[in-house]
Automatic annotation (TrEMBL):
Species of provenance: Pseudothermotoga hypogea DSM 11164 = NBRC 106472
Family to which the UniProt record says this protein belongs: Belongs to the HAD-like hydrolase superfamily.
Positions bound to Mg(2+): D10, D12, D207
Descriptive protein name: HAD family hydrolase
Gene3D superfamilies per the UniProt record, alphabetical: HAD superfamily/HAD-like (3.40.50.1000)
Required cofactor(s): Mg(2+)
Active site per UniProt: D10 (nucleophile), D12 (proton donor)
Cofactor stoichiometry and binding remark: Divalent metal ions. Mg(2+) is the most effective.
A single GO molecular function term of this UniProt record: metal ion binding
Keywords of the record: Hydrolase, Magnesium, Metal-binding
Keyword hit for Hydrolase: yes
Domain of life of the native organism: Bacteria
Taxonomic lineage of the native organism: Bacteria, Thermotogati, Thermotogota, Thermotogae, Thermotogales
Length: 260
């Protein structure tokens, strides 16, 4: 880890769980700062925007601003701009995701959209899902913000965008044309340019093998798995995805980084 200059931190299951910081979270940031390294919260969870994440982190005692957060919702907005320009889209997503997409010049359209965007919608209704399926059957472009099947919570795993993808596939026979978030390397490309760093100087710290770790490995970054969220040690041992480092939680990682 001596060569790592930027740590990308997943949030749900890695830095906090629900409204509680995971053991060692603040200590890890202190060590990173003391060594002159950088960090960025990088999350697939598109149900909130950067502002909402900053508000939550500050409530938990983490002094950050919006430059310290990058979400799959933002990456989706940038992808749409590059691929389609400013678009009229039908959204299965939260008000916060709508706010994020509109801040990049996109508009939300119910009757005659150009494409469908599916995010982690904690405000989902049957009406929205039904309308999305009708539009997807018309062969409109169909974009998902990320593929996570579950979102960790204090009560246990909750259905995430990947579960909605499966539901829509059962109804329409279609999978998304493009899934923007981790493990897609698009987010890494944006981050690499923003910090002017090669991916070999970047580490991804996360709790999911099929998103966080695949994302790092595909992008040429260091893959650090924490076992404080979705992935259990048994999951890791059965998986063909092998991160560079596996630790119990971010507290262990902080001690390792401090020791050098």
């Amino acid at each position: 880890m001596r060569d790592v200059e930027l740590f990308l931190l997943d949030m749900d299951g890695t830095f906090y769980l629900g409204d509680k910081l995971i053991r060692g979270a603040l200590e890890f940031l202190d060590v990173v700062k003391s060594q002159g390294k950088n960090f960025l919260f990088l999350t697939n969870n598109s149900s909130k925007g950067p502002r909402q994440y900053v508000e939550k982190l500050r409530r938990l005692g983490v002094n950050v601003d919006e430059t310290h957060v990058f979400t799959s919702g933002e990456a989706t907005a940038l992808f749409l701009l590059e691929r389609y320009g400013k678009t009229k889209l039908f959204l299965v997503g939260t008000k916060a995701l709508e706010e994020t997409l509109c801040s990049y010049g996109h508009t939300i359209e119910w009757r005659d959209p150009q494409l469908v965007v599916l995010g982690y919608d904690t405000e989902v209704t049957y009406e929205k899902l039904a309308r999305a399926c009708l539009l997807i059957r018309r062969n409109l472009p169909y974009i998902a913000t990320h593929p996570d099947i579950n979102c960790p919570s204090e009560e246990g795993p909750l259905p995430d965008t990947g579960s909605f993808i499966a539901l829509i596939e059962r109804s329409t026979g279609r999978l998304p044309d493009y899934v923007v978030g981790k493990p897609n390397s698009l987010m890494m490309q944006i981050v690499s340019k923003r910090f002017n760093l090669p991916t070999s100087k970047i580490a991804m710290v996360g709790d999911r093998l099929y998103t966080d770790m695949e994302f790092a490995i595909r992008s040429g970054a260091m893959a650090i798995l924490v076992l404080s969220g979705e992935t259990t040690r048994e999951d890791f041992e059965r998986s063909s995805t092998k991160p560079h480092l596996v630790v119990e939680d971010i507290a262990v990682l902080a001690r390792m980084l401090e020791r050098g």
